[in-house]
Amino acid sequence: MPKLVNKDAERLNPCLKEQQMSYQCLDKNAFDQEKCQKYFDNYNTCKKFWGKIYSDRRARGIQPYLPNIEDRAKIKEDYMNSVKNQT
Predict the structure, then answer these.
(1) Quick one: which of 3, 9, 40, 66 has the fewest CB in 10 Å?
(2) CA nearest neighbour of 69 among 17, 21, 23
(3) CA distance 69 to 10
(4) In this structure, what DSSP letter does residue 2 have?
(5) Per the domain annotation, does 1 fall within a domain?
(6) Is 2 a member of any domain?
């Protein structure tokens, strides 16, 4: 599978790195999905997180619904800090 590295692919898919890592694991392990479960779990967690961000921004009228690439690290950091403060 070709590696997507252009900015449009990254802009449209905030989980591109996780997706590529799961593909690489499958390639490396002769498509044995059991050996790559942690990569699938990580990708699914990523998709759920950014799906919630997308929905929240859309509901609040914030555009773009999917944050710009340069804003994503800060959004993840803020989320992680809020989770830590809840415990």
Answers:
(1) 3
(2) 17
(3) 8
(4) P
(5) no
(6) no
In a domain, 15, yes or no: yes
- The span from the CA of 82 to the CA of 41, in Å, is 22
Domain that holds residue 81: 7-86
Q: Give the per-residue pLDDT at 83.
A: 85
Q: How confident is the model at residue 68 (pLDDT cuts 50, 70, 90)?
A: very high
| Helical residues (DSSP H) of the chain, grouped into ranges | 7-12, 16-28, 37-59, 69-86
Whole-angstrom CA distances from 52 to 15, 20, 28, 32 are 13, 21, 31, 30
> Can you read off the two tokens belonging to residue 13?
């898919």
Letter string b/e over residues 36-59, b meaning 16 or more CB atoms within 10 A of that residue's CB: beebbebbeebeeebeebbeebee
- Domain total for the chain? 1
